Structures are given as structure tokens and as C-alpha cells.
């Protein structure tokens, strides 16, 4: 608990943390509002081809996350990469020599903060999108709550994934580049050829697992499997980060 408290203190006393939170909220509000405008305009213009009909607010929240997630990921990767950049990792390891315990403490703080931030983003996005959608929006209580919680869980797990990769790569830019590739570029590339084996590989990647979790449609696997896949990727990243910390000096 002492290590967790120390990591939480470090995170909350850095101004970049709060700037990242603010940027995430602003991005979510802007993205949700813009997507809601697209839906409303599409349903009221003269072109029937872009009529979306009545859209659940949760759908707008999930679509908005495509961009917003990268701002949230910054919290996870900066938990470790900033210490390598400034050299404070040496002090941290002197205070907590166990690499595994240190990473677990950082992971606990990252998961808790990004989950809470996910709930905040879901609420902010719903508050913006609902009035913009007007009659073209549906806000079922159970469905919207499920979407917000799924969104928060997804952000928490990929935040831990970012932390683990940051421990391996030690560079914020390089970690963010790898995350962009794993979450977006590689899955899209694997789906380009019409080859079932490549599609199955894409479905096992964290970005696609996140999409299946957020969609909740049970195809090609149910949301609980998607959640387990994401948790598995996060665990593998943490193990790799622990191995890298053991193998290399700070």
C-alpha cells in the first residue's frame, strides 16, 4: 500500500496529469458533439443514403473513443517513461527495489485513474451528445450504463498495457507509436486481404478485442472473452516490463 500511495502522490502532483485529464474531457466532448451533429444532419437532409435513424448515445461514445483513447493512454505510458527521461527511476528503484512490486503499484494506480477517467468521459460525452441528437438519440439507462462501464474498463486495461510497454521501450514517443500500430494500423492491415486466418489474428489483438468489448455484439466472441483478451495483453505487457527492468539498469 505504501508503494501505491507513493505512485498516486507522484501522479497527482504532476501538472501534466491534470492537463491530460482536461484534454481528454475536451476531446470527448468535441468528438461526441461532432458525431451527434453528423447523425442529426444525416437524418434531416435530403439524402436518404446517410440516414442513421435513431442512434443510442452509447454508440456515439464508443465511436468518439477512437481518438480520445490516445490522450488517456498518455497517463499510462508517462507513469514510467517520464521517470526514465528525468532519471528519477533510480530513486524510485532505491525506494522500491522489487521491480515486480513497483510495476504492480504503478499498474494499480494507472488502472484506477484511467477507469475513473473513463467513467467521467462517458458521462461528459453523453451529456453533450444527448441534447445534440435530440429526437434522433436514444438513452436507455441500462444500455448507456453498460457502454460507459465497458468504455472505462477498456481504457483501464489499455492504460496498463501502455504502462508495460513503456517499461520495455522507455520512450514515450516510441511507446505511443507501437500502441498506435497495435491498436489501429496492424488490425486494419490484417483485414485488408480476404484471408480468414489473418482475420482471426486481427481479432486477437488488443485493439480489436476492445472494439468487440465495446460493441457487445457477441461476434466473433462474447464481451467477456474480449475483456479476458485485453486483460491478457495487459498482463503480458507488465511481465515484459518487469523482465526489462530486471535485465537492464535504470
Average pLDDT score: 88
The helix fraction, in percent, is: over 70%
Number of domains: 1
Strand count, sense and barrel status of the largest sheet are: 2 strands, parallel
What is the terminal separation in angstroms?
23 Å
Elements, N to C (H/E): HHEHHHEHHHHH
Rg, Å, rounded: 19 Å
User: Helix tally?
Assistant: 10
Report the uncertain regions.
none
Strand order of the largest sheet: 1-2
Structural class: mainly alpha
Q: Approximately what portion of the residues adopt beta-strand conformation? A: under 5%
Secondary structure tally: strands: 2
Identify the overall geometry: globular
List the helices and strands and how they pair.
Layout (H helix, E strand, L loop, with lengths): L1 H11 L2 H30 L10 E2 H30 L2 H7 L3 H35 L3 E2 L2 H29 L2 H20 L4 H9 L1 H10 L7 H25 L3
Helix pairs in contact: 1-5, 2-3, 2-5, 3-5, 3-6, 3-7, 5-6, 5-10, 6-7, 6-9, 6-10, 7-8, 9-10
What does this protein structure show overall?
The chain has 250 residues and is an all-alpha fold. The chain has one domain (2-247). Helices cover 82% and strands 2% of the residues. It has 10 helices and 2 strands, in the order ααβαααβααααα. It has helices at residues 2-12, 15-44, 57-86, 89-95, 99-133, 141-169, 172-191, 196-204, 206-215, 223-247, and strands spanning 55-56, 137-138. A two-stranded parallel sheet has the order 1-2. The longest helix is centred in the middle third of the chain and has 35 residues, at 99-133. The chain is globular. It starts with a helix and ends with a helix.
Amino acid at each position: 500500500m505504501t508503494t501505491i500511495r507513493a505512485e498516486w502522490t507522484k501522479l497527482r502532483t504532476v501538472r501534466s496529469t491534470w492537463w491530460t485529464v482536461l484534454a481528454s474531457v475536451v476531446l470527448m466532448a468535441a468528438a461526441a458533439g461532432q458525431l451527434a451533429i453528423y447523425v442529426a444532419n444525416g437524418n434531416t437532409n435530403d439524402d436518404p443514403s446517410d440516414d442513421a435513424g435513431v442512434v443510442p448515445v452509447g454508440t456515439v461514445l464508443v465511436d468518439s473513443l477512437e481518438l480520445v483513447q490516445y490522450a488517456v493512454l498518455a497517463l499510462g505510458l508517462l507513469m514510467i517513461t517520464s521517470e526514465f527521461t528525468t532519471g528519477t527511476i533510480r530513486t524510485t528503484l532505491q525506494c522500491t527495489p522489487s521491480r515486480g512490486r513497483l510495476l504492480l503499484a504503478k499498474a494499480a494506480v494507472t488502472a484506477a485513474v484511467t477507469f475513473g477517467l473513463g467513467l467521467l468521459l462517458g458521462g461528459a460525452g453523453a451529456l453533450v451528445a444527448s441534447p445534440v441528437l435530440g429526437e434522433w438519440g436514444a438513452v436507455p439507462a441500462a444500455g448507456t450504463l453498460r457502454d460507459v462501464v465497458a468504455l472505462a474498463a477498456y481504457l483501464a486495461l489499455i492504460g496498463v498495457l501502455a504502462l508495460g510497454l513503456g517499461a520495455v521501450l522507455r520512450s514515450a514517443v516510441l511507446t505511443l507509436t507501437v500502441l498506435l500500430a497495435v491498436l489501429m494500423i496492424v488490425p486494419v492491415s490484417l483485414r485488408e486481404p480476404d484471408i480468414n486466418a489473418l482475420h482471426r489474428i486481427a481479432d486477437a489483438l488488443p485493439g480489436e478485442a476492445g472494439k468487440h468489448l465495446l460493441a457487445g455484439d457477441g461476434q466473433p466472441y462474447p464481451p467477456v472473452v474480449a475483456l479476458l483478451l485485453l486483460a491478457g495483453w495487459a498482463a503480458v505487457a507488465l511481465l515484459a516490463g518487469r523482465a526489462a527492468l530486471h535485465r537492464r539498469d535504470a
